[in-house]
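User: Predict the complex with magnesium ion.
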Amino acid sequence: MKIEAGVASDIGRVREGNEDSYLIEPPLYAVADGMGGHRGGEVASQLALETVERLFHEGRGTLTEQIREANRAVFSRSAADRKVTGMGTTLTAAMIQDDVAHLAHVGDSRAYLLRAGAFRQLTEDHTLVGKMVKAGEITPAEADVHPHRNVVTRALGTEPDLEVDELDLGLLEGDRILLCSDGLTNMVTEEQIQAILTSTPDPQDAADRLVRAANRAGGLDNITVVVLDVAEGDSERNGVPPTVALASAGATSRTGPSAREGARPLRRLVRPLIALAVVVVVLVAAFTAFRAWLDGRWYVGVADGHVTIYQGIPAEVLGYHLSHVVVETNLPASEAEAFPSHAGLVEGVNADSREGAQAIVDQIRQDLRRQRRAAKGAP
Ligand code: MG
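Assistant: Here is the predicted structure with magnesium ion placed in the model:
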């Protein structure tokens, strides 16, 4: 059997740091989700995987024994260093020998198997709600939304001795194994995970898509996924370098490590500022355009009983007049309004331009003069 691996780890959209770690050391693969304070989680998940890796290289013990030794290492460090007191970590590992995957597991990270289109969880969550589901106290659906769904009942580093779940899985060509932290499974449904795994042949693409899906769903936690494809061939390293790739060390993906972690808090600040700037620019532009349009409007109305030329429109918004007086004539508005053709003065008679407004005023002046002359000339 040949294993092709894809891996991605991301800080998510909310957390300050990535406390997940992963190990790609063919034929050994693992994810660990650290917990316990700002620094503790990072230290716990790294220390656990480094310990397992070292023992694996030294050929000491079974995978389970290596994990129990890692537990002691995290526990001792937690007791010795006040800065990381109380830290712990999950650990879900797969060691592949010939056509068998030896799985070892502690905590609420998970291993899944996609085989011939069927998708199932291989590990059991060591959580409070997991126990309650097992005891028939709540349903799996209730567990998904339970307020204490993140309470882990078993983790490396919290007790001097540790029980490790073990499972040996006979592998078939075409099998796909997923190891992941709860940052994936709390954000993305199993149906969605299965759909992505089924529709994405390349394991690295699949890992990247799963992380993107978790981030699109909110990315409330660190997200780490390892996708292992079982293919025909011998179990060489497939060009995967023998490295412990620790997500906490700053890499976000084995294929694309970047400085995203450091950039994230800054980006969180910059995004709202850009949004605010855009809103301000749009409002200023809208206001400026409106003012320009307003300045091109003219009308003839009434001020202090006189026929008056205004710039703007005869209206007000929230007490703000959308016009101002340009010329107040000495023509009495009441006399002008007596002419049917000038009856709209009180509401304002619109004009295309200042000249147009002046022409209306001139017309009123002529009409009034003619009327006065007619009145004088009358017997
Ligand atoms: Mg987590």
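The pocket of magnesium ion is lined by residues 33, 181-183, 221-222 (CB under 6 Å).
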